Amino acid sequence: MKKEYVIGVDLGGTKILTALSDLEGNILKRSRVLVGDVKDKDTVVTKIKETIEQVIEETEVDLEQVAGIGLGCPGPLDIEEGLIHHTPNLNLDDVNIKDELSDLNTPIFLENDANAAALGEQWFGSGKGAENMIYITVSTGIGGGVIINGDIYHGTSDGAGEIGHMTLDPNSVVKCGCGNFGCWEALASGTALSRLGQEALKAEEDTMIDDLVDEISEVDGAVVAKAAAKEDEVALELMNTIAERLGTGLASLINIFNPSRIVFGGGVSNSWSLLEDKVWETIEARAMDSLAEKVEIIPAELGSDVGVVGAIAAALAHIKK
Ligand SMILES: [Zn+2]
């Protein structure tokens, strides 16, 4: 039977998004299931199979027509083996997902979710045509993926691309989820913006952020951005601080990888117009001129689809090789 389709599975901590696409990446059918409260290997594997069966049955495609299944999953992973070492949100520890899904008789292509997202943007989103590209997603943390000569850069043990955990400030007392202090993600993410906003209120600064919430704990990045959009001075200053930190990290990435494009996604990217000037000012001050002038930064295109489209791209990348 002719292999005319691929399936992408985006394995998230709360839901599994699955889609069937043709070999051009056109999505024909989607499925979405919540993982639920019971999170263990058997439940997760059963739910993955359910979503795959759903998109197959509803399109009347035969599984034999599917050339491969791309599975985007939080790391750390061993891609070749199909091994998921550890995912705290799903309680998967040392699960060989290729073995678990072997009864589907279809090749499984495991990929780190952030790297898959990078590939998704490069194939089908804002990264189209960029052979050397960095994808960053800035929301509660900072994740990303590095594309070199059109391929994901995986590193020695499939761990490359943890850009959020480069140390931005060695003297920082802000502890990161990874255990280090002063990581880029700890200082420049939406969570960092939220923390700066909360600190401003605790210091009783004169800002409209105060009017937008009932409790200090309700100040998140979006609230600060909202006040900044209304030209609140304090909020604008906080956005500038985040923009400078983002620009500092980006300048390092530009110096190391010499990309032609940086694709910027995640919730914080919705405020790009408020960040852009300071980000560029910082890059121009810190990155090498000859490299900075070759790069463009553009917002991501795929939005909440990026995970599942990335998983499709991961499958296509293997099949078309
Ligand atoms: Zn970290």
Itemize the secondary structure elements and their pairings:
Blueprint: E1 5-11, E2 15-22, E3 27-34, H1 41-59, E4 66-73, E5 77-78, E6 83-87, E7 92-96, H2 97-100, E8 108-112, H3 113-124, E9 133-138, E10 142-148, E11 151-152, H4 184-188, H5 190-202, H6 209-212, H7 221-229, H8 233-257, E12 261-265, H9 272-286, H10 289-292, E13 296-299, H11 306-319
Parallel strand pairs: 1-4, 4-8, 9-12, 12-13
Antiparallel strand pairs: 1-2, 2-3, 5-6, 6-7, 9-10, 10-11
Helix pairs in contact: 3-11, 5-7, 5-8, 7-8, 8-9
The structure holds zinc ion (ZN).
GO molecular function: ATP binding; glucokinase activity
EC number: 2.7.1.2
InterPro entries: ATPase_NBD (IPR043129), ROK (IPR000600), ROK_cs (IPR049874), ROK_glcA (IPR004654)
Q: What are the key terms here?
A:
Nucleotidyltransferase, domain 5; nucleotide-binding; alpha/beta; glucokinase activity; 5-stranded mixed β-sheet; ROK_cs; binds zinc ion; ROK_glcA; 321 residues; ROK; 11 helices; 2 domains
CATH class assignment of the largest domain: Alpha Beta
Instruction: Give the H and E element order.
Output: EEEHEEEEHEHEEEHHHHHEHHEH
CATH superfamily of the largest domain: ATPase, nucleotide binding domain
What is the rounded Rg? 21 Å
- Enter the CATH topology name of the largest domain: Nucleotidyltransferase, domain 5
Percent strand: 15-25%
Distance between the termini: 20 Å
What percentage of residues falls in helices of 4 or more residues?
25-40%
Given as residue ranges, the uncertain stretches (5+ residues, pLDDT < 50) are none
How many H/I helices? Answer: 11
Mean pLDDT: 96
Q: Which cofactor or ligand species appear?
A: zinc ion
Largest sheet, in brief, is: 5 strands, mixed
Structural class designation: alpha/beta
Q: Order of strands across the widest beta sheet?
A: 3-2-1-4-8
| Shape summary | globular
What is the level-2 CATH architecture name of the largest domain?
2-Layer Sandwich
**Strand runs, count:** 13
InterPro entries: ATPase_NBD (IPR043129), ROK (IPR000600), ROK_cs (IPR049874), ROK_glcA (IPR004654)
Family: Belongs to the ROK (NagC/XylR) family.
Keywords: ATP-binding, Kinase, Nucleotide-binding, Transferase
Protein name: Glucokinase
